[in-house]
Amino acid sequence: MKIDIVSVFPEYFEVLNLSLLGKAQAKGLVTVQAHNLRDWTHDVHHSVDDTPVGGGAGMVMKPEVWSECLDDLLGLAPAIIAADAAVDDAVADDAAVDPSRPVLIFPNPSAPLFTQQDATELSHADHLLFGCGRYEGYDARIPQYYRAQGVDVREYSIGDYVLNGGEVAVSVMLEAITRLMPGFMGNPASIVEESYTGGNALLEHRQYTKPAEWRGLRVPDVLLSGDHGKVDRFRRDEALSKTSGLRPDLIEGLDCTQLDKADRKTLMSLGWEVSGPHPRKR
Length: 282
Ligand code: SAM
What we know:
Blueprint lengths: L1 E6 L11 H8 L4 E6 L12 E2 L9 E2 L1 H12 L28 E5 L8 H7 L4 E5 L9 H8 L3 E5 L9 H13 L34 E2 L2 E2 L9 H19 L1 H5 L8 H9 L2 E2 L6 E2 L1
Parallel strand pairs: 1-2, 1-6, 5-6, 5-7
Antiparallel strand pairs: 3-4, 8-9, 10-11
Subunit structure: Homodimer.
EC number: 2.1.1.228
Organism: Bifidobacterium moukalabense DSM 27321
């Protein structure tokens, strides 16, 4: 996978040379290149922002600088698009990735939430290009223009809070995406049973390691029983109960036909009705 990142602080991404992503780069599984947006400016101050049209506080990132940069990185010629060709933000951000097309991603706090499902989908792409916003954000015509040019453009928020810039958000998305690439994890089984993962996704059960007793706290006895069936059931019940308490929206999204008898019993004991297509709180 080829990853380009555009930022006014490209040094920020030196951290990506560490840990598993660093190893994946060394193995040639992924190449990451951070570019300085200011390299595409022509004025003496290398300015990338201007005042908002219509007034208001702060500065907005200029479309001309971004387009020169993105045209270069995407190998596109500049174009004038017809006003009615502009594709608005309403484009689904969860569509399937076509690996032969680059995906241009802008972090944006007012975009749909980035989820594990998005990370899974994007892990199939061959080329991802991230654009980090700063100030009040980037001119809204930038994603519109590249969508109209036929580029797969996606905008995602990483949560309901506002950061100073897109760099942290890009690091979050990059880590979530790349760890799902085949060959990235030493033990691929470790990404199969995780929170938010798979068809009937739940929060993961609690994890423990040795010693069995630590500072007066014991791990649950069943985990020491050696009975794999009982251990699996205990973990599954814990995942159901934890998810029911913290993320009832995930329980409401479960497909009841995929639940076994014991799942149904546990959910009913937690106050869920499981006779319909999806669980409903009683
Ligand atoms: N004026 C914007 C608003 O109120 O929605 C906030 C702009 S923020 C200060 C600057 C940049 O940081 C954004 O363009 C985006 O790239 C990034 N950013 C901030 N919070 C984010 C979040 N929760 N998710 C993704 N990107 C975020």
